[in-house]
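Supplementary Methods, section 5.1.

A reviewer requested that the exact input to the structure prediction be made available. We therefore reproduce it here, unchanged from the version used in the analyses.
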Amino acid sequence: MEKKKPFLKSAVNIGMICPGGNAATFSSLALHYMKRELSSEPGIFADFLLERKGTVTGFESGLGLSKFDILAVTASWAGDYFPLKKLLAENQEKITDLKIITGGPGALSAPESFLELSDAVFFGDADGIFTEIMRDILSEKTDMPWLMFKGDSKSPGIRFSEILWGKTVLKGSHSSFGETGLVEISRGCPYSCKFCWLSGLRKRFEPRNTEDVLRDINSFERGKIGLVSAAFLSHPDIKDLVKACQWVSPPSCRMDLVTPEILELLHEKKTVSLTLAPETLSERLSEHIGKPFHRDALFKTASWARSSGIRKLKLYMMTGLPSSDDDDTSETAETLFSLSESTGIKIEASFNQFIPMPFSGFALSPLCARDKLEEETEILKKRLERTGVSLRFSQPKKTEKIYGLLKKSSLFKKL
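The structure derived from this sequence is encoded token-by-token as follows.
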């Protein structure tokens, strides 16, 4: 974390928070970028905010929420609406004169919902213009590009920027990852999965310059490195980047890009688990959603991981996908069982309910009915109980509430 800058009574005081909790706040790369840029500006004091039993205070300053001029919120997903609403309600008397601006993927996906809680919502990347945005918000300008204000009848344009700040350090007990150096290596994704809004929103995959990434990796003296990317293995020089790390923590990987060589490299860098996101283990359904899955490839990948010394396989899956039927669910369950039995690798399968997202190929698809979703879940649980497969499922009620926020979005009306 950057060197502390003393609080100035005459400064513009900006509190930064992610509604997902203290760990989410201190692990947000966007907030670290924001703090670095704002803290370099004369007359501005920026501080992370901590939540303790409903009370919000500055991490460095110890100041209460009422002492800040702006609350800068990063919503990593639409579900952050609910904890943000709760936080503001609990501190209602302290935010009378507080300007609230919300950005991040969650706010972009459901801007009208977040405007219920904010003075403005920012669309896209704010790298390099954080200071300009904050000063304009305080001056009450309402014609700023990339921002939606209360009462706006149309969505503004979306800003995409280059990666100006490539790294940061997460420290202390509040970070989700312990002490970790985060280095951003790309933005966007080169694939077009129909359920994902990223490829529809950010049309280009932009790998960061390898020399810049290596410089940032080598600037850390020791410890764990998190390489931040939505398409980790798609960076053209990913092997060189992994080799440069002492201890790497990779995000989820695309299965068809995993090779024995990359697994050996990851294991050498103290990676203990491999995370894949196949979404479904039904070959028919995988073709339908635009992310083809091949059973043999999964078994080879698991065997390679086990041979390289990696002992845990984490799988991100979905329930309620468009056109899914009982045969698809049974095929997924049988594949998970066979994978566990034949390879002996520890498997954690997390199932999140599919939510139609704006900009995605399935934006206009309906949300899966509760009874059908329960049937899918029951098939999976019944086949995989008392096996070596650990199962986790999202909560349908929460998913339905999030879908309700998304359906308010003007982005759906453009489809």
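Confidence is low (pLDDT under 50) at residues 1-5. These observations are discussed further in the main text.
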